[in-house]
Amino acid sequence: MTVTPTPVGTGTVLALRGVSKRFGAVQALKNIELDVRAGEVLALVGDNGAGKSTLVKTIAGVYTADDGTMVFDGREVRVGSPAEAQQLGIATVFQDLALCDNLDVVANLYLGRELRKGRVLDEVEMERSSWELLRQLSAKIPSVRIPVASLSGGQRQTVAIARSLLGDPKVVMLDEPTAALGVAQTAEVLNLVERLRERGLAVILISHNMADVMAVADRVAVLRLGRNNGVFTVSETKTQDIIAAITGATDNAVSERAARRTQQEGTPS
Amino acid sequence: MTTPVDKAPVQDTVPEATNGGAVLPADLQDERLIASHGISGAVSAFTARLRSGDLGSVPVVVGLVIIWAVFQIANSNFLSSRNLVNLTLQTTSVGVIAIGIVLVLLLGEIDLSVGSVSGLAAALLGVTFVNEGWPLVLSLIAGVVLGLVIGLFYGALYNRFGVPSFVITLAGLLGFLGLQLLVLGKEGSLNLPFDSVLVGFATRSFLSPALAYGLVAAVVVVYVLTRLRGRGARAAAGLSSAPTSMIAIKAGALAVVLLVPVMVLNSDRGVSSMFVLFLALVVATDFAIRKTRWGRSVLAVGGNVEAARRAGINVRFIYLSVFAACSTFAAVGGLLAAARLVAVNQSSGGGDTNLNAIAAAVIGGTSLFGGRGSAYSALLGALVIMSISNGLALLSLDSSVRYMVTAGVLLVAVTIDSLSRRSRQAHGRA
Predict the structure, then answer these.
(1) pLDDT at residue A259 in the model
(2) Element (H or E) spanning B343, and its range?
């Protein structure tokens, strides 16, 4: 099946065109189209099994797509491994954060890419730039010399996000960053997401929480059963319309229009 | 604490937190940070750490003091300088083996075969040096390389097949004991020439008093200089740094901790060269764990393998290198034990060598659960284990009592480890 590529607009950092992924007999993703622009938060929503995680893992290089193309920064790329994605400038914060509880914040931030003076770790420079980074994010971490285990859920999430920024990425994907957090901590993380946007990064936010999505996202891409089910601009959309698109209720105008539009974009010519 | 989402202020500039006009260091600006200034602050921070279950080496130091006091009361010769010199000689080989155990424990793994590997290395030394007439250096290198190869073999098995380390090394415990008996052959016992350099090093070589005091002075000076340099670097980076009084107190404490034993040992034969080698290995390992990328990776793998892997750490190399280092330390410990006993036989590295080394690492405060520990626990733990052994021998109690007492101490140490781990989790310091 051939897909006419939709032209990649200006400001678009990452564009997926006709991305498909099968697991055995299951079509996990079919003809996914996605545009992510610099300085915007794109929320990726959908029911369980809609293909959100598969899509994130495909972009992050954990899976390779069976079909379709990925355009990053104006050129077509193939991402074969998570390391390749990171080198390109696509950082992913997975749901389990992957922090070492026994190490302090500085050690976690620089894990695997420690700064050194000769052969010896340069703790002073790492601590200094950790503070610099955390201050830029207005992160609320009392001390960077305490083990990560003693941080709250929101602070741990902050450390994980800050770590993803060290490689100077262009796209940051956050997989359910607020899933396990309380009210105040969720707000902290959402502040952080906004700060990433202010830094000019493209942010892909996966979330089940519609309140969070409406609070920070600029656009919302809905996946349903492995297909695009509409892209909404948050400022012009009501929560109910997005929920309708997620659950597949077709008797509303917005989701019908959106579905028609994506179909037009995605059909063979 | 948090600003509402829709009006989060943009803060591009670092807010200059001030305290009485002076700019606070970057790491002390958070108002929630419990300030601890000066010496009283350091003391209160230390007690707070203890209360939360982050015990470090405090239990083992307390335990050592109690053990020494008890034995001194039971037999006034225990703390005599003559016996303490013996204690340093006895501690070395178990201590060197325990350094390797500390490394595998940091990964949350175990090596049960260190005794057998040390015995096999000693057997190889005996057969090549005494029977085959190899040059001493070549025999020593052969023993060390043997340990290295065994460790690489363990690491490869672990990485390739994912067999739990305690099973691999349990097989090694038996297998290499068999190989040791095979290497020694029918005689089963070899005496090393008493006048060889190796035996001289392990039994008769002591630092001259001047050299020993000179070393102490050098260590203290190096400590002060590194602290001052580190302080300058931190100040230049806008971070808080320890006050001069604190550095002076710590340097003074270090000087006392080093000087008193040296003075006591010097009133007998002196500081054993072999013991100094052990101390050097401990310091070098501690440096490798705390100050190098490799050591940081070891701690990360011990804390969370998956996180380490995703951070791009070569996890397989870390396992391979740590198993190799552990077996190499075991081989070195075996060679030193053979040199001190001036003999190699079928029971070299047998008996309680294995469990003494493992117990030393755990008693010293290295966690069985991975990710926490220090090379110094090998030193402290080996001192505890060998003090018990030495003290009971002075009281002419036989190995039946020694085994039971050592087992009790090990049990207490492991219980403290588990309890403090639980407490750390409750206090958020895991």
Answers:
(1) 59
(2) strand B343-345
> Which ranges constitute the DSSP H helices of B13-57?
38-51
**pTM of the predicted model, to two decimals?**
0.84
B299-302 CB contacts, 8 Å cutoff, 24+ apart = B299/A100, B299/A102, B299/A103, B299/A107, B299/B106, B299/B371, B300/A100, B300/A103, B300/A107, B300/A111, B300/A112, B301/B107, B302/A102, B302/B106, B302/B107, B302/B108, B302/B370, B302/B371, B302/B372
Nearest CA in chain A to B305: A100
The CATH number for B287's domain is 1.10.3470
**Residue-range definition of the domain harbouring residue B233:** 206-270
Domain A3-238 CATH superfamily: P-loop containing nucleotide triphosphate hydrolases (3.40.50.300)
Identify which of B292, B417, B382, B372 has the alpha carbon closest to the alpha carbon of residue B108: B372
Asked whether residue A220 carries a pLDDT value surpassing 70, the answer given is: yes
Which residue of A100, A124, A138 is in closest CB contact with B300?
A100
Domain-embedded: residue B93: yes
The mean-pLDDT minimum among B32-41, B172-181, B380-389, B400-409 falls in B32-41
CB atoms closer than 10 angstroms to residue A51 = 24
Beta carbons of B303 and A120 less than 8 Å apart: no
Question: Cβ separation of A215 and B33 shorter than 8 Å?
Answer: no
Domain ranges across chain A: 3-238
pLDDT: which is higher, A126 or A179: A126
Nearest to A29 by CA among A65, A60, A80: A65
Q: CB-based contact (8 Å) between A195 and chain B?
A: yes
Q: Looking at residue B72, what is its pLDDT?
A: 95
Which of A3-12, A149-158, B63-72, B323-332 is predicted least confidently?
Answer: A3-12
Q: With bands split at pLDDT 50, 70 and 90, how would you rate the model's confidence at A262?
A: low
Residue A171's pLDDT is what? 92
